[in-house]
Amino acid sequence: MVLFVVDAVIRLLFKLMTRVRATGLDRIPQDGPLIVVTNHINFLEVPLIYFLMKPRTIRGLTKRETWNKPALRILANLWRAIPIRRGAVDRQAFALAMRELRSGGCVGIAPEGTRSHHGRLQQSSAGVVLLAARSGVPVLPIAHWGGEEVFKRLKRGRRAVIRVRVGTISTVDPEAAGRRETRERELLRIMGDLARLLPPSHRGYYA
Fold first, then answer.
1. Alpha helices in the chain (DSSP H)
2. What are phi and psi of 22, to 5 degrees?
3. Which terminus of the chain has fewer Cβ atoms in its 10 Å neighbourhood, N or C?
4. Can you say whether the dihedral through the CA atoms of 131, 134, 137, 140 is positive or negative?
């Protein structure tokens, strides 16, 4: 009941702040294990991806600092986010993500690791490749842009348009689990797939 009410309130607030234009939603599998890879602009993509994936449930890898803020801690717990330490190998987070995938669940990852705020892709880490290689689970890129304009638009009394493109599923070479060169190559491929879903102005490091 609490989750239902919280979801309804956040969905309403999100609609008041933004207009979402999404393409390719039919490419999202409705069952089976899945890793969703997305770009990281600001906190708005959390509810964006969460609601776009419905009726599927997605568990996002989320920085541990989120649990330091009472309101965000409640939301992170309700949405069953997986806490992760940034800038370090977090074996506990990796194990929780693997468990979710092995049970047929969906895990969301933003390989950039930190918000860009400007919307241009930043250099990313290969944790997502390692997770995909060891689990054997397919990867689905979902790109979005326009969220960087939300607060600027709100000051003018206008809603920002957030555009979303869903890519195509791919699998990671199992050798990436043990070979650094393969891991780096697969990361470039995954981020390249994500970049191609974005307009040229937002491709940043992966232009």
1. 2-17, 45-52, 70-78, 91-102, 127-135, 150-155, 180-197
2. -115, 145
3. N
4. positive
Backbone φ and ψ for 103, nearest 5 degrees, come out as: -90, 5
- Tell me, rounded to whole angstroms, the distance of Cα 3 from its chain centroid: 20
Tokens 């987070």 found at: 93
Contact criterion met (CB below 8 Å) for 86 and 114? yes
Mean pLDDT of 114-136: 95
Taking the mean position of all CA atoms in its chain, how far away is CA 92? 19
Other CB atoms closer than 10 Å to residue 130's CB: what's the count? 19
At 26 the three-state DSSP class reads: helix
3-state secondary structure 99-121: HHHHCCCEEEECCCCCCCCCCCC
Average pLDDT score over the chain? 95
Cα–Cα distance, 1 to 183 (Å, whole number)? 43
Reported residue count of the chain is 207
Helix (H) or strand (E) holding 163: strand 160-166
Rounded CA gap, 53 and 57, in Å?
7
Burial 12-50 (b: 16+ CB within 10 A, else e): eebeebbebeeeeeeebeeeebbbbbbbbbeebbbbbbb
Lowest mean pLDDT of 29-38, 85-94, 103-112, name the range: 85-94
Q: Please, which residues bridge with residue 83 across strands?
A: 62
